[in-house]
Amino acid sequence: MSGRKNGRGWSLSAGHKGVAWFLSASARQIAVVMIACVTLQAFAAEKETVVRLVNEDRVLSTAMELHLTATDSALVNSIVSLNHEDAWLFFDNIKPSEVLAKYSSGIRINGEPLNAGANGRIAIYAQGSVIMPFGYYFRPLTVYTEEGCTGSSMELPIHIYHNNLGEFDDVIQSFRLKRGYMATFANSQDGSGYSRVFIADREDLVMDRMPAELKGTVSFIRIFKYEWVSKKGKAGWNPHDINATSYYDWNIGGNSSSDVEYVAIRQNGGWPSWNDINSKENISHLLGFNEPDRPDQANMTFQQMIDIWPDMMKSGLRIGSPAWSNPWGGTGGTLFDFIDKCDELNYRVDFVALHCYWGGKSPQNWYNDLKYIHERTGRPLWITEWNNGANWTTEWWPDASKAYTDANARKQLNDLKGILQVLDTASFVERYFIYDWVQDCRAMVLNGQLTLAGAYYSANKSQIAYNGNREVVPHWNYKPPVLSSRYFSLSNAIRVGWTDSNGELSRKYTLEKKVNRGSFETVYASEDVSKLFYLDPLDTDEGGTLTYRLTLVPARGIPLHSNRVTCFKTAGTDVIQSADFIVDNLEANTVYFSRKYSTVPLLFLGVPSFENAVPLTQRVTGVTTTSFRFALDPWLYVKNARLLIPEQLSVLAIPAGSYDFKGIKAEVGAISGVTRDWSAVTFNKHFGELPVVFCTLASGGNTVPLTVGIRNVTVSGFECCLKSEEALTASINGETVHFFAIEQGKGAIGGKRITVGRNSEGSGLFSSPVDILLDSSYREPAVFAGLLSAEDNFASTLRYSLPGESVLRLVKQRETSAGDSEIHVDQFGWMVMDLSAGQPDTVTIVPEQHKRSRVDFYPNPANHTVNFSFDAPIRVEVVDLTGHTLIDAVISRELKVNSLPRGVYILKAEGFLPALLVKTE
User: Fold this and answer.
1) pLDDT tens column, 199-254
2) Which residues pair with 112 in a beta bridge?
3) How many domains does the chain have?
4) Domain end: 470, 501, 536, which one?
5) Spacing of C-alpha 765 from chain mean position
6) End-to-end distance of the chain based on CA atoms, in angstroms?
7) Do 200 and 295 share a structural domain?
8) Residues whose CB is less than 8 angstroms from the CB of residue 822 and which lie 6 or more positions away in sequence, other chains included
């Protein structure tokens, strides 16, 4: 890393915050070691330690560790034969290269001379080496389809990406990993998702029962040789000069040797390539980006690192974090922010990489800061660059020139001893790589010779790096599923779908539904987590607010609940449909008709309940034959309006026309181009008495809240206009208004009982509520009401409540955008409709002018189309002479019969006597 800029700032206290003495919540979760799932089964090997063997042959035919501690002449006229898979020979103080050069002839593998890489394996073991009777074709991992290492089994070789496991995909229940190897398991075929690295460092690792996250979910495995390297490493080249057992070079071009393990790095966002990294053999670890916070190094944004990190996981290697130049600093995010984000996103980070040029810091402070970083991140530490300060730090040196003088050399030696004492004894420090190019006073090697400190560093015998007690067991941060819905009008069904980022770590889905204020009931439950939707077939008589929620049972932990999705749907198989909605928002809500209309119906909204004080207007938009949208809209002057308690709102859909609702006459129509000016509306037929008129704003020509004003209601018509906030004087566009005029009395609409009334002469509605006596047998009352006069300059709307079983209370709620002023008495009307099922003494409505006459149509006989003259849409059926229905449609003018074969049929229309239809060719 030569060529660094001088003057790089450093502050030991910068970024330190009040943090709990141990791990953050996420880190604590990661640090939990799930011992319950693992059985570490030692092979009960005997262990014998001698200095050397002289004139003595040994045959190891059982599980046995033979340790030779000599630094030379370890085998003198002696032969050691390894005749058992778990018979291992250790040279505790002789490097692998020297063992191969001097002692190969004295080592036999199952009777054959040692041929490392062919019939045996030699590995780094701290300052020495170990020989294992594992040949080239040895397969160290065996996976099983049943717990307890039973069932079908498969042995797997090293290095290969095992991402096509065939019949073993998603069925592995246990495994055995031989000592001296490490394996990464993941539940996604590309190595992403939940993944975990297992290391068999002290004995065979036997997993009798897979951890919950990997139980029956493994689709990716990669296996590597494990080397028992020491903590001591080298950042850069020539690691042999200082007896380091591992090194890296900010590249991918280096190689492992018999004495030194090479560590790869993804130096920056684009290099080295993933192909070079993933095809590199004889590596087992991968470092993250080098100093992403520096423009002259990786120079990456926080988000770039996060976006690339899944590719690090896909390598299957044991991976380390990016190494910030200052773990407490960084633009856009610190090391700690990165770890927290990875934990949130379930990205595996096996260890934390640091750069520590901490000149002038005492050994105790080294320990304190390293311990803090370890506890804050929950990972073991790799110090991938460090020295006793650097050319940009400002600590004191005896000779200020920073040259290699006797005084500076002694200071470096003394400081180095104290730092190494910390690094070698701190169990959470896994590896440290000294950086040798930060001025001569700190050098380990100068002019090809070890310095005073370099000699000490070289001779220092550090411990084996990996400490299984510090194993990181990734915790999966389960996220609730996200629910969505879609309505299918042709099948009258709602498709409830969900996304689940937990993938195979989900174990069961339970979908529940409730209607309006009812209780949730289960409509779907399955352990097939590959299916991410349910098609809920709806009863045509089921209307209202349908609310769905999904419960997920994860592989570990408590069940999680999704968001709730709400669908609004009308009920009714007739041409008239209705519903009562529970509304908890001020947004545009889509409502689906339970049965598709042949022509676009007209819509009428009831008055909202009075659960919230916020004044509300309402409108309908986007009416089609299958759906419409409605919204409760507060006046503009009301800031930050929201519904703290859901409101109740009724709706009625009726095609235009004249009706007789069991003796109560009505007319339904629409007016377009309604503005602030009063518009006169004339009924098609005069009523016999003064009707009640309800109007609903049914278009979206303006972005401001509006309501419909009504006055001068007579038997022949009425006047209407749009009313806005009094303080709003800007011009408004014309809108469409739907009107529903109906006589007073009792009747039935679509089999639902109704009671219609208006205020008595001399009474009305102003600032005080008005109570109206209700029929207490109405179990599900839907309330429609409106003002029938406009005595105030300002706009008002109505709200309702039901303080008792037989009382309807109406409230006139004015807008106050221009301040308070006198409120006048207005006339009003109301209609209550019982939406409950199984009502007594109800009949289906029919258009009044056709009641019980024979259905009239032409031509007859007919070939392609028959024509009608209904005033409103009516359901028509064509049945054959055996009673089978062949056509069922809601029409008002024509019916296509070209699909019928030649013959005689019966044509039925609701409210009419049937007639014969003759179909020709």
Assistant:
1) 999 999 999 999 999 999 999 999 999 999 999 999 999 999 999 999 999 999 99
2) 109
3) 6
4) 470
5) 51
6) 92
7) no
8) none
